[in-house]
């Protein structure tokens, strides 16, 4: 058996390697500049001596949108140094984890979460990878392939098996030309916040490495044996830090048109944070590429969920629609996300920390309009989307949809600009 500690001790990080970033936490190259880099919570300058190191975790998150299957695949590394073992029952499951949710068109999404622990696992701090085996044939085989794309470009191999799904995807970056405006516009750059969670020194980084991806491969629905070919678009995000997620939560949305010149956007919000609530969007205005970031704390962006329902699986009220408006001196963006019943919770009972919490995975459709400051319309669009809503589960066994809509009147929203 190969332990996580043995894997860590074998890692060698070149002393000459230097890192820079827009975050305040550590000196890293941003993900779009070095997408293959190893797990960030394993880097030498990550603060391992914090009293909160036991809640250090990182997720590498991929979204897939296609005509045949929509899904989310996430690889999670939690508490890799095994700190505070007496609290393991209360925190995220330690070591390697994989979560997947899949939606066959016209069917209810199906979600699984598997913890592989520390034994029988391998990770890498110099080049992104996570390999693990678990019970009943479950496994992950996630690897960075520096020249593994069809044209020798960087790629990621996503493989794994859970109770309901077995997947094999190759992911490459789409809309690479848009990286040129990240630094000057600030859009799609790593965002960092210390106002998440409840405790001093909690901190969180969100690195939207590839806002738009190409995804090819297959996924097998194990209950029926159906093998589904996938050729679509998606999204990759790498987020990390020290964060008690089960007493906080977030709203999240990513959307994009299929054309090379289409609109692409991501919306990030964290319930207890002001600094990490923002919308990033890229689009063409009369043939000229534009990228914008709108912050809610600057009164540039607001949102609300007009409609809610009770979800018995999540044991919580959950939104079924979202309205987002963003405005600055140059542009106004109006977005409506129709979620409806295309959602299902990611759940786990392995620890108390995750059993009281849920992540509602969503597969909405977004309609939008972008206007210039003079009111003229740049574009209107409709796009496939993915999203999440998460929070602590409700202690009550049931509420009506009417109760949910009244309860949510003063929650999970920000004033429109």
Question: Your description of this structure?
Answer:
- Residues 1-26 have low confidence and may be disordered.
- The chain has 417 residues and is mainly β.
- The strands form three sheets. Strands 1, 2, 3, 4, 5, 6, 7, 8, 9, 10, 11 and 12 form a twelve-stranded antiparallel beta sheet that branches. Strands 13, 14, 15, 16, 17, 20, 21, 22, 23, 24 and 25 form an eleven-stranded antiparallel beta sheet that branches.
- Helix content is 5%, strand content 47%.
- The chain is globular.
- It is built from four helices and 25 strands.
Helix and strand layout, with pairings?
Elements: H1 4-9, E1 56-65, E2 70-78, E3 95-103, E4 110-117, E5 121-123, E6 129-133, E7 139-145, E8 155-161, E9 165-173, H2 182-185, E10 191-193, E11 203-221, E12 226-242, E13 250-256, E14 264-270, E15 278-285, E16 288-295, E17 301-304, E18 308-311, E19 316-319, E20 321-327, E21 331-338, E22 343-346, H3 352-355, E23 357-362, E24 365-372, E25 377-392, H4 401-407
Antiparallel strand pairs: 1-2, 1-12, 2-3, 3-4, 5-6, 6-7, 7-8, 8-9, 9-11, 10-11, 11-12, 13-14, 13-25, 14-15, 15-16, 17-20, 18-19, 20-21, 21-24, 22-23, 23-25, 24-25
